[in-house]
Amino acid sequence: MTEEELRKTIQSGPPPSLEARVEWLEADASAQRTAILRLERQVKHIRIGGCIVAAVAGWLLGRSFT
To answer: Residue 58 belongs to what domain range?
Structure first.
């Protein structure tokens, strides 16, 4: 059940059942975990890229003084 469906259910009648609310919360938690894992993966790639750039810059600076 999406958030929009949950809102429609709340607005249209009696409150949703406990099972429906738990289902929505589990789906939302799963989406949040997926988003966190994606962000962690992006941060890892940025760190690796930053290390590579720093290494190349250090190498170039070292070559310019010799």
So the answer is: 41-66
As a whole number of angstroms, the distance between CA 62 and CA 54 comes to: 12
Distance of alpha carbon 3 from alpha carbon 23, whole angstroms: 11
From CA 15, how far away is CA 17, in angstroms rounded? 6
Give me the chain's average pLDDT, please.
88
Whole-structure pTM value: 0.61
Domain count of the fold of the chain? 1
Task: Using CB atoms within 10 Å of the CB of residue 28, give its burial: 0 to 12 exposed, 13 to 18 middle, 19+ buried.
Answer: middle
